[in-house]
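Renewal narrative, Specific Aim 1. Our central claim is that a sequence can be written position by position from structural information alone. The example that follows is taken directly from our test logs and has not been curated for this report. It begins with the structure tokens describing the chain, in the order in which they were read.
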């Protein structure tokens, strides 16, 4: 699971929809009480940004004419986050490194930039 944290307008269809699904998977992982340490250690997620990122991705999906039918409850996510150790919550994805990796992997995303 990964949160690219780049401007959603830059993401190609595959990466836009993929990140959206992965956010839902991340919430499912949290519901099961699984550790987020590996995702944090590998600079892949920003737990406290889950709701805002989901909303940003959903808005971009709608702007492109895609249907978005899977809201996420901010109250539920915030409650889940409260059960994790503090050191896992206050982290940020390195957007510069994430952007570089995204563009390395995907010419379409790079061209959209």
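The sequence written for that structure reads:
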């Amino acid at each position: 699971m990964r949160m690219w944290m780049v401007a959603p307008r830059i993401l190609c269809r595959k990466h836009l929809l993929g990140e959206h699904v992965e956010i839902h998977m991340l919430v499912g992982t949290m519901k099961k009480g699984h550790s987020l340490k590996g995702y944090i250690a590998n600079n892949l997620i920003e737990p406290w940004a889950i709701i805002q990122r989901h909303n940003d991705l959903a808005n971009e999906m709608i702007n492109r004419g895609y249907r978005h039918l899977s809201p996420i409850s901010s109250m539920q996510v915030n409650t889940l986050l409260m059960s994790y150790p503090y050191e896992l919550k206050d982290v940020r994805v390195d957007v510069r490194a994430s952007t570089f990796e995204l563009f390395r992997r995907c010419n379409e995303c790079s061209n959209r930039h």
